[in-house]
Amino acid sequence: MDLGIKEKIVIVMASSKGLGKATALEFAKEGATVIISSRNQQSLDETAAEIKEASGNQQVFPHVCDISKEEDIQKLVQFAADQFGRIDVLINNTGGPKAGGFDAVEDADWYKAFDQNLLSYIRTSRAVLPYMKEQQFGRIINISSSSTKEVIDGLILSNTLRAGMIGFAKTLAREVAGDNILVNTVGPGRFATDRVAELDQIAADKQGVSAEEISKKSQSSIPAGRYGEPEEFAKIIVFLASAANSYMTGQSLVVEGGSLKAL
């Protein structure tokens, strides 16, 4: 199937590793021009080289951007617009906030989580929308968490801010649908990423067992019997940005191997 992504201009935030990197790779495989971003130039350069080699697509451009800084976001979007004349797809992504329950987080943690996990998505969306409206086409896809459907114990910051993201995305989707701009959110369950390894280690330290034991127990609780691979998640993102999706907007999906019991 031709997904209609070839030569589309795609920005993938926080894409030097994990789900962001996997998403950038899948877009590159489909022939898109991909701008990848993170805070570290060396890491970005290495990731760009890996994606080019794995995809055979040389149209991969690293650009440093700290998603918590509005000026960095503006420079990133301006770079894409100046270089390619348009922006077709924005993939919002950032690292998860500090783990912990209510008593483990302070005001500074709440402010940081708001800035990183909600306001940053608002800022990137605001920056690309003028270009998308002018061309009467755009796709904004927010990478979130399965906590948008079922809260996760010990992740109060994520549970709270991800819910706010869903409210933002749903409202924005309704406002821009008439401009042929679709906005959707996809939350991962447990995938084989550094973030999940970090959470497994935190649980292991708390329980006094090995991270391997926690991982094995966690995977056994998933009906699919394993953690997902990042590329499996990335393919869903690419579908939502593709010509195969021309009508679905304002939705919050989860990709989790059947682990959630919530309807």
Task: Report what the structure shows.
There is one protein chain. The chain is α/β, with parallel strands linked by helices and 263 residues long. It has two domains: 9-189 and 229-254, Rossmann fold; 190-227, no CATH class. It is 49% helix and 14% strand. It is built from eight helices and seven strands. It has helices spanning 18-29, 41-55, 70-84, 107-135, 156-176, 194-207, 211-220, 230-241, and strands at residues 9-12, 33-38, 60-64, 89-92, 138-143, 181-188, 252-255. It has a seven-stranded parallel sheet with strand order 3-2-1-4-5-6-7, with helices on both faces. The protein is globular. The mean pLDDT is 96. It holds the Pfam family adh_short_C2. Belongs to the short-chain dehydrogenases/reductases (SDR) family. InterPro entries: NAD(P)-bd_dom_sf, SDR, SDR_fam. This is SDR family oxidoreductase.
Which class of the largest domain in CATH terms? Alpha Beta
Beta-strand percentage range = 5-15%
What is the averaged pLDDT score?
96
CATH homology-level superfamily of the largest domain: NAD(P)-binding Rossmann-like Domain
Helix-strand string: EHEHEHEHEHEHHHE
Distance between the termini: 31 Å
